Amino acid sequence: MARLIPAYDAKNAPIVGSGDKTLNLITFRLICLTASESLTLIEPDHELCLVPFSGTVHVEADGQRFDDLGGRDDVFSGPADSVFVPANRRVALVAVTNCEIGVAGAKVPEDAGGAAFRITPDEVEEVEVGSPETHSRRRIRHILGQRQNGRVRRLLVSELYANPGCWSGYPPHKHDTDDGAEETNHEELYHYRFNPDTGFGGQSCYNEGEAPTTFTTRHGDTFCLDRGYHPTVTSPGHEGYIFTVLAGYTQRGLVQRFEPRHTHLMAAIPGIQGMRDAFK
């Protein structure tokens, strides 16, 4: 069952860990370090993507060193500078400045080898969806997307930026069934930020024919989704941000099924097909 985790200080421990009651594949933690502080991380059987939300950090993984990773003031200050780490690798972090790092994980069935690699800001692929007129404009920056096919087993990671007062995940769609080329079964995790951070939003989820359950989302909250349609809205006067993590059960590429009663919106909202193509 989908659930919202209100913001709290997990002190670098997982906010969503292995064996979670909602998600079987995805893990998520926030690592907060002060300048010169260090931390060693390993998540057995999970491939990882380390995305600095703010600040700069040195990362050593799988015998490789990635210096001065990050550099953003916050998530609203440009594309991310990130590192992907295959499963069962030791990761050592040393903060250059005070920093906050989002760590997305996906459980993989076996260690497929491969090497850690960096995803620089100029390798992040951006897709624009919607319009202010349809109250649906958002930009999706793919950190782990199609460009990394063949190098990543399950993990898809992106950052979504919604205009004030706009909807995302809209028209409503789901991805909880493996149905050939029509839909794939993917878990999903959202972590929300707002600019300014007094902002809030609404996160709905529902299965076919059911009344929606809607949560109020605030800065720093996390949402776990295992099934159902899941449109999101951001309060007027605040830019919305969602750190988005997806993991597929049978394939990495995502195929969304849009709710049939809203298919007339597919042509009315610009960029929907481009968004679908970028996740496959």
CATH superfamily: Jelly Rolls
Largest sheet: 9 strands, antiparallel
Name of the CATH class: Mainly Beta
The pLDDT mean sits at 96
* Model regions low in confidence, pLDDT < 50 over at least 5 residues: none
CATH fold-level label? Jelly Rolls
From N to C, what is the helix and strand string?
A: EEEEEEEEEEEEEEEEEEEEEEEH
- Number of structurally distinct domains: 1
Structural class: mainly beta
Total number of beta strands: 23
Terminal Cα separation, in Å?
25 Å
Query: How large is the radius of gyration?
Result: 18 Å
Per the principal axes of the C-alpha atoms, what is the gross shape? globular
Helix content: under 10%
Query: What's the architecture in CATH terms?
Result: Sandwich
Can you give a write-up of this model?
Helices cover 3% and strands 49% of the residues. The protein has 1 helix and 23 strands. It has a single domain, classed as Sandwich (Jelly Rolls). The longest helix is centred in the C-terminal third of the chain and has 8 residues, at 272-279. It has one helix at residues 272-279; strands at residues 3-5, 14-16, 26-33, 38-41, 46-61, 64-72, 82-85, 91-95, 99-107, 117-119, 125-129, 138-144, 155-162, 167-168, 173-174, 176-179, 183-195, 200-205, 213-218, 222-225, 232-234, 239-248, 257-258. With 280 residues, it is mainly β.
Quick gist of this model?
The chain is mostly beta strands and 280 residues long. 3% of the residues lie in helices and 49% in strands. The strands form four sheets. Strands 2, 3, 4, 5, 6, 7, 8, 9 and 10 form a nine-stranded antiparallel beta sheet that branches. Strands 1, 11, 12, 13, 16, 17, 20 and 22 form an eight-stranded antiparallel beta sheet that branches. The chain has a four-stranded antiparallel beta sheet with strand order 14-21-18-19, with no helix packed on it.
